[in-house]
Task: structure prediction
Amino acid sequence: MAESEQRLRAVSDERVAPEMEPTTEIEQAGTRLLGDRRRMLTVLAAFLLLIVGIYVLLPKVVGLSGSLKRLSDPSWFWIVVAIGFNGFSFLAYAALFRGILGGRDDGDMIYRRLDFSASFKITMAGLAASTLFSAAGAGGVALTYWALRKAGMERRRAACRMVAFLVLLYTVYAVAIIVFGILLNTPWIHGKAPVAGTIVPAGLALAAMVITGLIAFIPDDLERRIARHQDRRWVHRLATVPATVSSGVRTAISYLRHPRSGAGAIGGAVGYWLGMVGILWACFHAYGGGVPFGVVVQGFFLGMVANLAPSPAAGVGTLDAGLIGAFLLFDIPVDTVLPAVLTFRLVGFWLPIIPGVIAYFALRRQVNSWADDQGQVAYTSESKVRAEAN
Result:
């Protein structure tokens, strides 16, 4: 009987004692996020008021209303192209999610539940939550973690896979900053190359990659080593964080070291950023173009750093200012930058809120179907254990 139970538990790729699992704050935050309708409506109202204040009232105060007049006369062909890039980026994001969070074992229940359809719903709902509850995507993280737990994924595995997801996604981000920051200082790519916008960010991105790589060397049994010398519970719980992050980093590195088995995840990470850059590139063309492609790429990734700053909703103000400031650093005229960036924000961040909310309700129905199946799965698993024991 004991051997059979061990075989059943071996389905999980992370077997740890319950007291050694990460804390449940993210899971609880996800539940609060989904259950508090009044909070959702309040944030949405603040979001709309903030948009009106920043994009209607503020430009009149600071004398930029002339630049905003161009918003009424874009090239609609390029707007359609931007929307197409947006759809592509969401599909790529779902592929990345499916590749990392679903795992690679087609015999695993989690793999079957987190198919492409479920992955797309989770990512769309998560991106909408990130828009409404910004600060480096905290709302999306909470919703995603909640969905993974409802799919049956245990806490340590969910935390590990989410770390791997973010590491792989932002490794592509860092590599892009390094590559284009260097190439803009060569004759191979046309465009202005200020040191503050190319070499300095490239150096910081390289340092971040090195630090992330070093995290992989944190031992798996860090919690147990600490437990030998410290019996305080809060110390044990705190020690789970570096070990879980380290495990996630190693998982991401394994995908990069074996690109064939992780082609979907790697392609999804690259495709997502290509789609986002494509949106901005098309938005610049919608208002006359004239911005070198290398500058579009570097300005995008440089400006997106502002998304780390807390904002009441969707990074309104912080991310917009970061993107605008990044392109002004490359001497792009404000009359070109302002309408392009605002249109990029409309297409890439605000427009997806509607399908994201629709995906959220579809996700809730799918989560309920998982809950209905849970009893049958538990009964089948218990039957198998008894059969093996006999």
Summary: The chain has a mean pLDDT of 76. Residues 2-389 form one domain.
